[in-house]
Design a protein that fits this description.
By secondary structure, the protein is mainly α. The protein contains 6 helices and 2 strands. The chain has one domain: Four Helix Bundle (Hemerythrin (Met), subunit A) (Up-down Bundle), CATH 1.20.120. It has a two-stranded antiparallel ribbon.
Length: 155
């Protein structure tokens, strides 16, 4: 097989993987809504998936349902990774904008890793790991909002 063919196949596999399946992760939970088209919409979906975890605390199937909910939130994180925060869009082109873009990608990558950690904690049915993963996600949210959501915060 030629080198160019390998690159084309790799690019197609990557594109298919990033386009997202119709199912949230491997949780067998079908996504009901179309993927978010704006950053705010994606952030709302991420936040909503975590807020719904509180309602599941007393559910007998809490662990499985929570893992599925977190997997759905991960899909929103992946959608948001393709977007650029408005604060960064408004920056003039140059080194500061490039640095902000790289930092935004770093934060989104850490957020996706946090969601994966949380999903694994629910699948392990480990309350301590769940609490630790939620703490990490809260810290990431605070850092992200401090840097890239200043113009959208309420006075």
């Amino acid at each position: 097989m030629r080198k160019e063919s390998v690159y084309i196949i790799l690019a197609l596999v990557t594109a298919l993987g990033l386009s997202g399946p119709g199912v949230a992760g491997d949780s067998e939970v079908p996504e009901k809504a179309a993927p978010p088209k704006e950053m705010a919409e994606a952030m709302d979906a991420m936040s909503g998936s975590l807020k719904l975890l509180r309602r599941l605390r007393r559910d007998p199937d809490r662990w499985t349902k929570s893992a599925a909910m977190v997997a759905k939130g991960s899909s929103a994180v992946i959608s948001a990774m393709r977007m650029v925060p408005r604060e960064i869009q408004n920056l003039p082109d140059g080194p500061a904008k490039l640095k902000a873009l790289a930092d935004s990608r770093r934060l989104m990558g850490l957020t996706l890793a946090g969601y994966a950690r949380l999903e694994l904690a629910f699948l392990a049915e480990d309350e301590e790991q769940v609490d630790e993963a939620l703490d990490v996600l809260k810290e990431l949210k605070a850092e992200s909002h401090e840097k890239y959501n200043r113009g959208e915060q309420a006075p």
